[in-house]
Design goal:
Chain lengths: ~240, ~70
Amino acid sequence: MIGGFGPSLAALVQRLRGIRTPRSARVSRIARWLPAAALLGAAPAVIAAVAGPLFGAPALTMDDVTATFAGSGLLQFLLIATVAGPLAEEFGWRGYLQPRLRVRLSPVATAGVLGTVWALWHLPLFLLTGTWQSTLGPVEGLGFLVSMVPMSLTYWFISERLRGGVPAAVVMHYAGNVALSLLPFTALAGGLCFLVGVLGIAAALLVAVARTPAAPPGDRPANRTVPTGLNGRRRTSPSA
Amino acid sequence: MQAPWVGSAHACWLVGMTTPTTAPARAGIAPAPQKVRGFIALTFALTWAPWLGALALGGDLDRPSSSSCT
């Protein structure tokens, strides 16, 4: 449990060393990023739960859903789901690392690097008895690790593009963990549907980003270059 | 006539691979690869030390509900 705080702890250490990261979250945009983060976080598990049975996975029962918190109680389950993962990681991944990778890399390249680091970071959990990862088979485990790259693109979308910052990433991570705990894979088909869901969401977001302007005028600093979001060319916004 | 998806795919390629750096650059974060590498090293050290320690001690966290995070 303690080790899981590594990313946020490392971000805190960097902050104490004087390395600051400007806040990217916009409270004024909460009506956009909050529902998007919750929905996009939960969507892959919901897709897997719905589509899995169509490809041979056993359908989930209410007992499967409630089994997750049957032992500990719902409140403790939700509390742990908030801390383990969302708060323990996101200040590091999306709060510290993502903005620094984005200084030099495109969103897709950033998702590639961050997703790979994020996946490698999880590896020991596959060897530790009692973790969710240790219950996965080799194919499901590989799918879980691979899904972290496209998932990182979705995190980029809600944290940077929708101006949700770390709070949006925390919400998305929380929604994803809760959904995956309540709607666990019951077969390989479910895991594959989860991976396809993650890939589909990332692809859909890329299409959406390609078709919409980068930022509303109110978010653009004066006399700075911003992307059009369509062709990668920069343009200069008018002075305020 | 070009199929509609061709335009979308091309736009996705462009935005995905060539969109210039945006919000962080505007926010004033200077490119500093050593700070990225330092953060990653610190993160793995802070995380893997206790996890590998637990592994060396038997590899059982004994707390199933606390480790379902992704």
